[in-house]
Each structure stands twice: as C-alpha cells, then as structure tokens.
Amino acid sequence: MDLVYEALVSEGGFVSAQDLYRKLKDRGENIGLATVYRSLQSLSESGSVVIARGDDSETIYSACEDGTHHHHLRCKRCGASVKIDSEEAERWTASVAREYGYVEVSHTFDIVGICPKCQT
Amino acid sequence: MDLVYEALVSEGGFVSAQDLYRKLKDRGENIGLATVYRSLQSLSESGSVVIARGDDSETIYSACEDGTHHHHLRCKRCGASVKIDSEEAERWTASVAREYGYVEVSHTFDIVGICPKCQT
DNA sequence: TTGATATTGATAACCATTATCATATTTAAT
DNA sequence: ATTAAATATGATAATGGTTATCAATATCAA
Ligand SMILES: [Mn+2]
Ligand SMILES: [Mn+2]
Ligand SMILES: [Zn+2]
Ligand SMILES: [Zn+2]
Predict the structure, then answer these.
(1) What does the alpha-carbon distance between residue A67 and residue A44 come to, in Å, rounded to a whole number?
(2) B46, exposed or middle or buried, with CB in 10 Å at 0-12, 13-18, 19+?
(3) Domain-wise residue ranges, chain B
(4) Residue B61 CB coordination number (10 Å)
(5) CB A116 to CB B105 under 8 A?
(6) What pLDDT is attached to residue A120?
(7) What's the confidence (pLDDT) of residue A55?
(8) Cα distance between residue A2 and residue B106, in whole Å
(9) How far is the CA of A34 from the centre of ligand 4 (A)?
(10) pLDDT of residue B54
(11) Distance from CA of B84 to the nearest CA of A (A)
C-alpha cells in the first residue's frame, strides 16, 4: 500500500495499474498485481488517489491529496496533469440539472490534450 | 445494421451492446452479438450514434442524429437522456486549456442523475 | 509463545470486446 | 439467368483488463 502510493506519487501524473505494476517489478520490488489493484482501490476510496479512464480501456490513477471537488487537465502523451478550478463548470452543470428536473446529478469531466513539455 | 439502428432508436436512450443484443434476441431476431457491435461501431463512426461509458465497465450507445458537438444529461436509472447546450462549458474548457498551454484539447463530459420520471 | 486476524502474491475466473473464419447474402459482370 | 467476386453475417475463439480465490505469510493481541 505505502509502496504503491510512493510509486504513484513519484510517477507525477496519471498511470495505469498495469504500468505501475511493471515499473515496480522492474525496480526489483516483490509485489503482486493484485496488491497494486487493491492498494489503488483503497487509496481512491480514502481520497488520496483519483481515477480516470484513458482513451483505451484502461483505468488510470493519480496521487492527489486534495479532497475537495475538482478536475484535472491531463496530457495524453505523458500523463502529466494539472488541477483546474471548475467553479464555472460546476455552476453550469447545476443549472442544466435544474433546468431538466434531474436530481442526484454527478459528473465526470475528462479533459485531455498535449502539455507544453510534450509539444515538439 | 438497420435492424440495430431501429432497435436503438426505439430504445430512446442509452443502452449497452449486450442489452441491445438480448432485446433483439428476445424479440426473436436472428442476429449475432458481433453484428450488434459492428453496427454500433460503424453507426458511431458515421455520426448517427453517440458513445458513453456507464458507471460500470460497459460502453453504452444512443441514437443521436445531431452531428454538431454537444453533450447529454443522462438518467442513471433508465438511460433516458436529454441533449444539453454546452456553450458555457466549451468556453470554460478552452480558457483552461489556454491558461495551461495545452493544445489539441478534447473533452468528454459524463453527466448523470435521476430523470423526473424515475423520481419516486 | 500462540492463536486469531489481516495482508500478500500467484493464479484462476470473469466478462466486455475483438478477431477469426466458414457460410450466407448481395452486387456486378457476363 | 449464370456466374463470380465482394461483402455482410453469425458462431465461436481469443484478448486483455480487472476481480475472485486461496494458500502462505505477516501482523497483532493475549
Ligand atoms: Mn466538477
Ligand atoms: Mn463539449
Ligand atoms: Zn505531456
Ligand atoms: Zn430515468
């Protein structure tokens, strides 16, 4: 668990469970894939890891200490992400939900692009 | 292809390929699961079907003739969805992308709640 | 020390999706 | 209408990320 969290923190951005597992193994750690999944799962439940869905069918994870509601702008090349303020978008979703009479409305924003460093 | 499209239209909202397949079989149609996937795939490429990712790991599809960029507010109970105007959110994402120097930025909004009909 | 409890790693199972392939259907040319 | 090539279809196997299982190991409290 601590090992997985460390590795994820040092990763800096979003990474898949499989990739994280490979990197840990390559580093010589004795760890199982199931443990990586389990750790990421409980870390996300405890709020220190955020989850997103990459372009493909892999779930990707990133360490994020901030427990308050926010979103990320993520690089599709390297996985780097920046926390972004979303007040404006929050108000928009709330007003849309009200307009159509939907309740218990939640949302997921997946915003991806190419970060400054990855631009040739 | 036409059969799949019809079924999806009559469905009204979002539904998974597996569910659509089951409903077609229950209706007595002679169709294969692969054909359902293939049809939904090409329909989405031709722009008459939109794709989203449900809470679980299933991809869900909905007939949507509107080829312009827009988003949906979807009911997590019955799959019903309403097309929503997102100009405000579009401007927000564009400004965020500019602020952090990200280019080629695209986004996916998944906004789900409980529709008026499904509220007890 | 000892016994109960929780964690771990290896591996099998799961399941949505895709690839394969033989058959059936459509299309175009003769 | 015949025939041959091209395309679409359904059945089924394969893929791959994720989860379940389980025996072994570590942790903890008497
Ligand atoms: Mn938000
Ligand atoms: Mn948009
Ligand atoms: Zn980058
Ligand atoms: Zn509903």
Answers:
(1) 10
(2) exposed
(3) 2-119
(4) 27
(5) no
(6) 87
(7) 76
(8) 34
(9) 36
(10) 77
(11) 7
A83 contact B CB<8A: no
Q: How far is the CA of B26 from the C1' of D8 (A)?
A: 22
**Backbone phi, psi, residue A7, to 5°:** -60, -40
Tell me the nearest-neighbour CA distance from B101 into chain A, angstroms. Answer: 6
Contact status, residue A73 vs residue B97, Cβ threshold 8 Å: yes
* Average pLDDT per block of 10 residues along chain B, 120 residues long: 96 97 97 98 96 89 95 97 97 98 97 96
Mutation to test the A interface, candidates B58, B59, B104, B111, most A Cβ within 10 Å:
B111
Cα atoms in the 13 Å half-sphere on the side-chain side of B21: 14
Q: Could you tell me the pTM of the whole model? A: 0.94
Question: Exposed (0-12), middle (13-18) or buried (19+): which is A102, by Cβ within 10 Å?
Answer: buried
**Per the structure block, which two tokens stand in for B5?**
């499209």
Domain A2-119, CATH 1.10.10.10 — does that match? Answer: yes
